[in-house]
Design brief:
350 residues, alpha+beta, 8-stranded mixed beta sheet, 9 helices, binds alpha-D-galactopyranose
């Protein structure tokens, strides 16, 4: 069996998922691939790491390596009462790792889906997403929200997904045919960002707890007045961002591409200034993308390096991306990369 599991970009709704707010990501046409067969234990070869790992299902100790994603998936499945056996095969694909495009969620869902199909576990896509997030939170040890796993599991060709991360209700929002999503990778790997991410998360959780709210959707700016300045600054960004996600949904439905693009740019400068997860490289990309004619651009994912997106007219996208790439490469020493991607289906087997 062969499983294809996409990466993702987020159109809008950044750092809102762990506050149980709104997000609107897109599964993209870059994949993690697992090709394999059923077996007693696990034996996987990773093309990226040129490395083979083996383990027995009764020994799920963490190794601090790429295989932990697979072990984490087994762990949560066993805890949940499922009893899948092993996999033998290889892991490959064209989704760049540590780039802010959710290669972790993509790999978790690839594994989850493989086991779901191979051993007829009959999990729904939502359940696979939730268990994958659990594997990442509890086994791998990254305190991420649900956005990435959800869109990798439930993505749909030519559509973004509007997700209410409190209720997990969702709605597909068609992406106008004339626009192209450009992904730009700054060349700055994201691994060192985890402490800053956890710190943002801690502040927002404290606010929700003090106000006794289950979601940032129910918090108004007014209610923040007694919090320290930093808390106000961070959480008021979240409130505005939730509103922008709702607005983007409307603009896309009405095919208002220019208005959609403007909201993305507004969101970028808001997250840069008030949530402080951008960097000069991401800012440079956004500024130039707009200058060279994109409808909009913003950082995507956690920030602190990683990737940004721009939305442009299909006919102009390549030229815009190439121009920014050249300027960026003159200014910064990092090995940047750009890719033109399409909105794609969630994880599937061939
Ligand atoms: C990472 C996390 C997501 C989300 C984004 C920021 O990608 O995995 O859950 O919090 O950052 O929006």
């Amino acid at each position: 069996m062969k499983v294809l599991s996409p990466g993702r970009v987020n159109l809008i709704g950044e750092h809102t998922d762990y506050t149980y707010g709104y997000v609107m990501p897109v599964a993209i046409s870059l994949y993690t691939e697992i090709q394999g067969e059923k077996s007693e234990d696990v034996e996987l070869y990773s093309e990226v790491f040129n490395d083979t790992k083996r383990f027995k299902l009764n020994n799920l100790t963490k190794e601090n390596s790429w295989i932990d994603y697979v072990k984490g998936v087994y762990k949560v499945l066993f805890e949940r009462g499922f009893n899948p056996k092993g996999i033998r095969g290889r892991v490959g694909g064209n989704l760049p790792i540590s780039s802010g495009l959710s290669s972790s969620a993509s790999f978790e869902l690839a594994t989850m889906h493989f086991l779901n199909e191979a051993y007829s576990l009959k999990m729904s896509r939502k359940e696979m997403a939730l268990l994958s997030q659990k594997a990442e939170n509890e086994f791998v040890g990254v305190p991420c929200g649900i956005m990435d796993q959800f869109v990798v599991a439930l993505g749909k060709e030519n559509n973004a997904i509007f997700i209410d991360t409190e209720t997990l209700n969702y709605e597909y929002v068609p992406i106008p045919k004339d626009i192209q999503i450009i992904v730009f990778h700054t060349g700055i790997k994201r691994e060192l960002a985890s402490s800053a991410y956890a710190e943002r998360r801690r502040i927002t959780e404290e606010v929700l707890k003090k106000l006794r709210k289950n979601s940032s959707k129910y918090v108004s700016e007014e209610e923040l007045k007694d919090f320290p300045e930093l808390y106000k600054k961070r959480f008021s960004y979240i409130i505005r961002e939730n509103r922008r996600v709702e607005k983007v949904k409307e603009e896309l439905k009405n095919n208002n591409i220019e208005a959609f693009g403007k909201i993305l740019v507004e969101a970028h400068w808001d997250i840069a200034k008030n949530y402080e997860v951008s960097c000069k490289e991401l800012d440079f990309f956004v500024k130039n993308a707009v200058e060279y004619g994109a409808y909009g651009a913003r950082l995507t994912g956690a920030g602190f390096g990683g990737a940004a997106i721009a939305i442009a007219d299909r006919r102009k996208a390549m030229a815009i991306a190439e121009k920014i790439f050249i300027e960026y490469s003159k200014k910064f020493p990092w090995k940047a990369k750009y890719l033109l991607v399409e909105a794609s289906d969630g994880v599937k087997s061939l």
